[in-house]
Amino acid sequence: xALAQEAKQPLPQAMKAAESGKRLSLRQAQTLLEKxxxxxxxxxxxxxxxxxxxxxxxxxxxxxxxxxxxxxLSGCRFCAFFRPPGHAEGYVxxxxxxxxxxxETLALGxxxxxxxxxxxxxxxxxxxxxxxxxxxQHHPIHIHGLSPPEVVHMAQVDGLSIPEAIxxxxxxxxxxxxxxxxxILVDRVRELIAPGKCGADQWLDVMAQAHxxxxxxxxxxxxxxxxxxxxxxxxxxRLRDLQDESLALGRGSFTAFIPWTFQPANTALSHLPPATxxxxxxxxxxxxxxxxxxxxxQASWVTQGAGIAQTALAFGAxxxxxxxxxxxxxxxxxxxxxxxxxxxxxxAQDLGFAARQRDVFYKPV
Length: 365
What we know:
Helix content is 47%, strand content 13%. With 365 residues, the protein is an alpha/beta fold. It has one domain: TIM Barrel (Alpha-Beta Barrel). The strands form 2 sheets. A 7-stranded parallel β-sheet has the order 2-3-4-5-6-7-8. The protein starts with a helix and ends in an 8-residue tail after the last strand.
């Protein structure tokens, strides 16, 4: 009977399910994304946000994105930052350069670094472990590092299994893993926009193995390229299913979900129109409603700017990301928003929230 009613009145039934906090089906999520009024979505998502995080606080972090190299084999069509190996503009950071960037981050109150490179043909697990050991020996900072495609690539370079690779990286100082390289977790899309990266199953396997070993991770979605609406929802489903499994084990899990829009400028997909602010807010809201087992959803001021990021705080987001002392990948696509700590605090306070600095585990600093 319930399925029959949903078939006849899909939007009212989806709205009712979201209003009551019930777990949404794939069809309900897609219906909301495609058909719900924007302000209704915002209201429902904000209510879900307050159920997850009832304290009137918006969190943010102080960190730095450090790209250890821009040389990458992947050749992603959406990336304006990478250079093929051997390119005149390619680089690999020296230990001295890496240390200087970390010292600057610590001096500005940073608690962690987000450290990533590309799929460099000569950088495997052991080379990366050497870098991590150098960092931990000289700098009191948390390493939030790599991404599942990097872990898969590095393991292949050194002939290791994924569990072995993660175990060695953890022992060298890796403290948590960001959700980069997820794009859309559907292989049809990945083969079109990122054919050199690992498949969706491998991305999820890295996160599952990381959780099994007690690491916390984040999850992302880059949308607005060549995916369908149904494929966006499928991406969310796969994340929600893995989170269910990880929480049942009681070890590591996803701390947050960060959706962001594809930035087409200066990429091989520059002919595509950029996603609008409304597209972003709708996707953000549905993400908060569908991912009922994720504690946090983060706004992306890096791609949206301060105004839309502030609006996102009324559309399900409870976190403003970080001050991002350095960011290279999105900037290479011609988007270069910058927000100091004082501005992040103001964005939260103007909406009646307190602003609180956090660490990578969402604990207050």
